[in-house]
Amino acid sequence: MRPPSTSDQRLRTVLLTVVGAVIAAGAVTACSATPATPTPSTVPSTAMRTPSAQPSAAPSPSPAESPASGCQDRYPGTLGLALFARTPDPEQAICFNPPPPAPGEPSYDPILLPRPCLEATHHSNDLIADRRGFRFHFDADPDPVAVDTSTVAQTITRYSGTGAADYLKELRAALAECGPYPRGHSTFDYQVVDAPKVGDDSLRLRMIRVTGGPLESGTPTKATFLISVVRKGDLVSVVFDLGWEGYPTRTKYLEGIFADAARHLR
Prior knowledge:
The chain is an alpha+beta fold. It has helices at residues 8-22, 163-177, 251-264, and strands at 128-139, 149-159, 181-183, 186-193, 201-211, 222-232, 235-241. Helix content is 17%, strand content 24%.
């Protein structure tokens, strides 16, 4: 079980240095999102794991995460909220075309879609008709007297023509072609995981991240994050585990979200 956060400062540091390196929309997206500050749409239980350990506080979103911050997505973002596995929080909408960082601020390139190759071209991107995504924060521990805060990102894309089927084909080709690659202080490796087939086509992946540093005390140097990709008709849903403070979400909880994402995609 992951140790709970001890301060907002540590949370911000880890999200920017570790989770930021782990989560986002690299070559398979048009743009990446600004880092999200945890504001759970479903507030986890405030019960303590132990008398001396409390869950991380959830600071309010910064102005950079607001739609008024300058995000000018090229997508209309009209996909219905009922398509998503959970009821989205508008404050946790993913910006796929964020404004440039302020002078002196580091750039941020989270991974919210599978990125099996450091550099890859997906021709299906030219057939994207719409794209919309949200982050979801929740308590992944079924025990009512414990808190296990975690996060996933779900991105839904509508394609024109053969784009949806093409994307799955391109993703499989990239998985077969590329192996582990370095990025920043970490190495990333994508692998196919056996899972029941759902929808018209589907893939279950794991992303293994090995980090050399620098890391906050207690953050794992190696972690595995699961990803579900499902196609139904011209729609493709990607649910990407983001975990919390470098730790992945409990697999049993993810299975429920993956199943709900496939069922809602229609």
